Every structure is written in structure tokens, then in C-alpha cells.
User: Fold ABC transporter substrate-binding protein/permease from Fructobacillus broussonetiae.
Amino acid sequence: MKKGILTAVVAATFAFLGLGALGPKASASEPSYTITADATYAPFDFQDKDNKYVGIDQDLLKEIAKASGFTYNVKPMTFNAAMQSVASSQADGVIAGTTITDERKKVYDFSDSYYKTGVAWATAKNSKIRSLDDLKGKVVALKTGTAGAEYAEKIKDQYGFKITYFSDSDTVYRDVINGNSVATFADLPVLQYTVKNGTALKVQNGDAPFDAGYLGFAVKKGENQQLLADFNKGLATIKENGTYDKIVNKYLSAKAETFTGSAKDNKTVWGILSSNKKAFLSGLGQTAYLTVVGIILASLWGLLLGVMGVSKNRLVRAISTTVVYTFRGMPMLVLAFFLYIGFPALTGVKISAWTAGILTLVLNEGAYTGAFVRGGFNSVDAGQMEAARSLGLSHAQAMRRVIIPQGLKLMVPSFINQFIITLKDTSLLSAIGILELTQTGTLIVTRNSQGFRVWAIVAMIYLVVITLLTLLSNWVEKRTNA
Assistant:
């Protein structure tokens, strides 16, 4: 009975705050399947100049669904998160340039192959490296989970090179261009697309790619077999009617400007800002929403932990200390992955990315809030409690009427500082597919390969917002101390 009441209270709270699904509300025509995808793997999966998810994978999926009569909803995220979402039953399937391997077959069931992949390797445009033998003793940058990474891992001992990993393609390319590593391995179409887009790389084996196998659509092993059968059926149909070849040729032969916008727009900060203003505003709006909701709930949770931390009851104090210690000591990104992927895999209960993101902020930021709230109460002069008790107030009454009001006044700057920290911490939630400001920047960079300019814009947006919050903090601090 108590458990049922608690569940009802939690559900009502989330419904009041609009966090039940923390995404678009369901409707009668909602897609029947949830499909995850890699958000940063052009030309297979990426966002075009109109902020629509496109690519070989996305166009094939669209036509396959049409041919087989099923509907779906795409959730773009990092490759590893996309794969793990399916493994934990958070999503029904994944299409993300995924190479079919024996190891992956232990966890996933794959469709018929929809693309034969070949691995190429590339160096900086002005590099003197010409053969794999030249890689000996040097560092190679790879994107985790890709066919290129798998191939490089197989030959690294043979050629004596070291490996460093990144979660998105643009960071890999920048690492090579900046000289921190000397080469990278990836699917040939991926490297050809980024070179065509102006990235200063040179593909070393474009005419003779290494054979790395086949790409496939995947579902969790033993589940969603109807979806898998429908995918295979639709794939066969579009191969037969010529739609498949049209889609592949569209992305392999088109000029980069077709998806990235004009070269003129991408050559200046103002051009990028102007052509992507809707995306930046949307990302900033999502960041603001996460921050405001997160800080409100984290503040309430932190206040409770702080009050518990100064309780006369030893057990209550111990619970508060344990909670604060646990969630302050846990890296926020680990907590986000645990809530979004680990917990559903353990319990079978699906949690939306938004719910996992908000819970991550509440638990992590609330722990820090609880720590400074407890410190704020303890900083109130001990004589205040003694005076209150001498006037006949109980300990609880003295806390509520004397200690807490004075302590909260001292904590106002700390609360606003935590607001700023929460704003910055929202960037980590991009790893589980939440499209906030940092993820928006990543998607734009994947499309236009203008990392320096895009990240300069993102940095300036954060700086402006944080400056405004700092000014607010100073103003509030002066008002409370007046």
C-alpha cells in the first residue's frame, strides 16, 4: 500500500512538472517502433542544413518502413549509447553504420546486410606518412565502435602503433590535423565525405579499401523479430525497384554543399551563426529547460538533505551523509549512463532520456546542494540555537524559525553558483541523446566540419549566459546583505 502511494505521488509530481515522458507527448498516431542511430556519422547518419536527420541509413530506413508498412521514431545519440539502448530494451532497433561481427551477434540479431563496407585510413593533408609501416611507434585516433576502429585494433601489433579513442568523428579528425595523432581509420565513404567537405585530411588507400565486412540493422537478441523481418522484406523491395541505388548514390556523389549549406556561410562565424540560428536557439532552449527544472528539483532535494544533515537523530544524519557522499563521488556521466542504460537493463523498466537526464541533475547537483546547505546551517552562530531554546522553543521550532531562515540567507550566493554549475553540467547529457546546446554544436560540426568556428559560437553562448547569471548572483548577494 505504501509503495503504491509513493508511486502515485512520484507520478503526480512528474506529471505536474511535465516530465512524464520528457519529450514529445504521445498521440494516437505515435510510431510503433523506437530506432536509435548514431547522430555524427556522415554520410550514413547526420543532420543537414535544415536540421533534419538524413544520410544513407536514414533514407534507407524511411523507404524500408514505407515498403513494409511500419512506422518508427528515431533517437539520434552517440554510437555506444545507441547500441546499449537496444541492448537494455530502451529502444527496439538500431541503424548506425553497425558492422556485423560474431561478437555483436552474441547480443544482437542482425538484418540482411544493407551495405558492404571498406575501411580506409587517412593522415593530415601535409603528413609525410605514406604507408602503414610508417605508423610504427606513433598514435592513431579512432572513433569507438566503428569498422575502422575494429580493423585498426586487429593490425596495431603488426604495425606497432598506439591507439587513442574518441566518441565522435570530428574530434578524431581534429586530433589528426592538430598532430596529436598521425592517422585514423574509418569507413571509406565517411572519410571521403569529410574530405569533400573541406577537412584537411588525405585518404591513403581510396582506391583499395581494406575489407571490413558488412553493415546491418540490429535488434536485441531474441526480441523484435517482426521488426527484423519487416526490415529485411523492405530492404529486398527497395533493392529490387532501384530505390536503394538512388539513395546510396545520392550521398556518395552529391556535393557537400547539398547538405551543409553554401561554402560562404560556413567560412565565417557570422555565416554559421546565421544559417544555424534556429538550431542554436533550440539547443539553448533545451539547455535552459534542463537547467531550470534540474536546479528547482535539486534545490528541494538538497534542502531536505541539508536539514537531515543537522538532525538530532543519528540515523537521519547518517542517511544524509551517505547520500551526499555517494552522489558527489559518482561522475555525472557514469550516473547518466547508469540511469538511462544500466537501470532499465536491470529492472526492465524503460526510462526516457529526458527523465534520466533530469534525475541525473537532481541526484548529482542535489548532493552538492545538500552539502553546502548543511554547512550553511552549521555556520549560524551556536548562540542562536541556545537563545531560541532558552525562550522555550523546541529544537524543531528553533530550526524552523531561527536557524533555517538565517542559514538560507547565507546560502543565496551558493544557490546561484550551483545554478551556473548545473547549466554547464547539462552538456554531459548529450551522451545519452539529449539535444541541448553542446549536442547541437556536435551535430553542426559533423555536417560542416567547421569545428573551430562552431565551438567558438557555442563557447560564446555559454559565456554570455553565465556572465548574466554571475551579474544576477552579485546583485542578489548585495540585496540580501543590505
In short: The chain has a mean pLDDT of 86. The chain has three domains: 31-114+217-260, 117-213, 275-481.
